Amino acid sequence: MKKNMGSVDKKIRLIVAAIFIALNLSGVVYGTLGIVLLALAGVFALTSLIGFCPLYLPFGISTTPKEKK
Q1: 16 against 65, higher pLDDT
Q2: Where residue 34 falls among pLDDT bands split at 50, 70, 90?
Q3: CA-to-CA distance for 17 and 25, rounded, in angstroms?
Q4: Are 10 and 68 a contacting pair, CB within 8 Å?
Q5: Which of 1-5, 21-25, 42-46, 49-53 has the lowest average pLDDT?
Q6: Sign of dihedral through CA atoms 9, 13, 16, 22?
Q7: Where are the domains positioned within the chain?
Q8: How many whole angstroms separate alpha carbon 46 and alpha carbon 53?
Q9: What is the spatial distance between Cα 41 and Cα 47, in angstroms, rounded to a whole number?
Q10: Residues 6+ apart with CB under 8 A from 33
């Protein structure tokens, strides 16, 4: 599995995941939407930690820095 996420992409995903978790824990978002946001937070955190996003593959997206030759 080749990494396709750069450091900025990873940081943004972790920040968004933290916001989703904070919204849920503070009671601002609850119910079905709260559960969906927690699931998205988990996916964002997981993909950020492993550095690979499967949704980038079909579109050929990669946010990793280009290698210099």
Answers
A1: 16
A2: very high
A3: 12
A4: no
A5: 1-5
A6: negative
A7: 7-53
A8: 9
A9: 10
A10: none
